[in-house]
Amino acid sequence: MRVVIARDYEDLSKKAATFIAMEVRSRPESVLGLATGSTPLGTYKELVRMHRKGLDFSRVVTFNLDEYYRLAPEHPQSYHNFMNENFFNQVNIKKSNVHIPDGLTSDVDKFCAEYERTIKQKGGIDIQLLGIGRDGHLGFNEPGSSLGSRTRLKTLTEETVRDNARFFSNPDDVPRLAITMGVGTILDARKLLLIASGGAKAEAVKASIEGPITSQVTATVLQLHPHVICVVDEAAARLLSRRDYYTYVEKVAATVQENAHI
Ligand code: F6R
User: Fold this and answer.
1) How many Å lie between the centroid of ligand 1 and the Cα of residue 38?
2) Is the pTM of this model over 0.85?
3) CATH of 2-260, one of 3.30.70.360, 3.30.530.20, 3.40.50.1360, 3.30.9.10
4) Which of 66, 91, 171, 188 is buried most, with the most CB atoms less than 10 Å from its CB?
């Protein structure tokens, strides 16, 4: 696992966007797994900036991690709306290449199985962007989620409902259920890119990177994946025991790269 410690949120966003842009440049038909929430906002902003300078999304295919159950795509707090506003409407992505779970589906099981099939049909996810909940969730895989789980309907914890309430004018409107890719679905992506910012995420980051693997903190499965990059800012990295080593690794890697160009 590669742990990149960014100076601050801006630096984190630039670094995360650079990893995604590298993927898109090397394979213009890349399949990107995308996330919503506060953390990726800066990453999307940076990708939009790169698009204005030529980064091409015309062949890119995307799959979002999750969507609230029973929230219409037009709802201001739906993840459909979030993605359109913050990313899709500002780049040259084809709407037919965009996939986000349908919160209004009348047959959840059928829809979820179809979502999984579509990911496979498109060749699988090349790089999956991930935020992390304070309880260590990935997507909406709350504590106790099976580490082999696939896309399904999930009940959100009280803590997650409270955290998400900041986006809703009436806290009672916060959905209690969401359709989310499973932990197993996430692990199938060829690369994982986790981003975490701020002191409130420090415990979850510490548990995920350095703690024992457990379904009680689903992000600990990152440790099982062969290609993970965690970009965390100073505040989120605060509790990492091996942060000096992670910084040293990045320095050595940069030196090796520089020498490779000589
Ligand atoms: C969103 C998602 C969630 C968030 C997590 C952190 O698509 O899958 O796992 O990444 O809840 O949210 P923020 O970034 O708002 O702290």
Assistant:
1) 7
2) yes
3) 3.40.50.1360
4) 66
